């Protein structure tokens, strides 16, 4: 099992996409979702495999066909809704066009000073077993992730 912890609508968006993915993508099932002390959490099945970053050149080359198949599958999913940009669980994006969404990126403010005052590239946090706390890493939101045996 995997426990993911975050803020806001992080996992409600995951549920919205899972509802329309219809089993076409290898997405682990979420077994529980909730809120506690201002945080949201989701518990899901653990996906097995080797992270792409942990593969050597031959391993990456071997994984590319499956990776491209998944990317093609993602592109074919119609999530419904309207608008462009970072959408909410109601599937409404804040911009009327893709160019508007792209042009707005550099003007967005970071949601908290802890994120460095910059919004692009946004940072997220990953739970580190070595220090037991969240640490910054590349990504689109602050999310602590921890594997549970």
Name the helix and strand elements from N-terminus to C-terminus, one letter apiece: EHEEHHEEE
Low-confidence stretches: 117-149
Domains counted in the coordinates: how many?
Answer: 1
Query: How much of the polypeptide forms β-strand, as a percent range?
Result: 15-25%
Distance between the termini: 6 Å
Count the E strands.
6
* Whole-angstrom Rg: 17 Å
Question: How would you sum up the global shape?
Answer: globular
Return the average pLDDT rounded to an integer: 74
Q: From the helix content, strand content and strand pairing, which structural class follows?
A: alpha+beta
Question: Helicity, in percent?
Answer: 25-40%
Major β-sheet annotation: 4 strands, antiparallel
Query: Order of strands across the biggest sheet?
Result: 2-3-1-6
Helical segment count: 3
Write the topology of this structure.
Elements: E1 2-6, H1 10-21, E2 30-36, E3 39-44, H2 57-76, H3 98-104, E4 123-128, E5 133-138, E6 143-147
Antiparallel strand pairs: 1-3, 1-6, 2-3, 4-5
Provide a compact summary of the structure.
The protein has 149 residues and is α+β, with helices and mostly antiparallel strands. 26% of the residues lie in helices and 23% in strands.
Structure report:
By secondary structure, the chain is of the alpha+beta class. The protein has one domain (2-45, 77-147). Helices cover 26% and strands 23% of the residues. It is built from three helices and six strands. The strands form two sheets. Strands 2-3-1-6 form a four-stranded antiparallel sheet, covered by helices on one side. The chain has a two-stranded antiparallel sheet with strand order 4-5. It is globular and about 40 Å long.
């Amino acid at each position: 099992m995997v426990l993911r912890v975050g803020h806001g609508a992080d996992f409600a968006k995951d549920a919205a996409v899972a509802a329309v993915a219809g089993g076409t993508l290898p997405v682990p099932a979420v077994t529980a979702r909730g809120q506690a002390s201002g945080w949201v959490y989701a518990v899901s099945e653990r996906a097995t495999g080797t992270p792409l970053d942990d593969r050597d050149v031959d391993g990456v080359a071997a994984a590319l066909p499956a990776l491209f198949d998944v990317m093609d599958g993602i592109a074919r999913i119609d999530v419904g809704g309207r608008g462009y940009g970072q959408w909410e669980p109601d599937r409404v994006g804040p911009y009327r066009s893709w160019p508007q969404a792209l042009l707005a990126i550099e003007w967005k403010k970071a949601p908290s000073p802890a994120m460095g005052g910059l919004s692009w590239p946004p940072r997220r946090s990953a739970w580190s077993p070595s220090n037991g706390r969240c640490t910054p890493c590349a990504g689109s939101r602050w999310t602590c992730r921890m594997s549970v045996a």
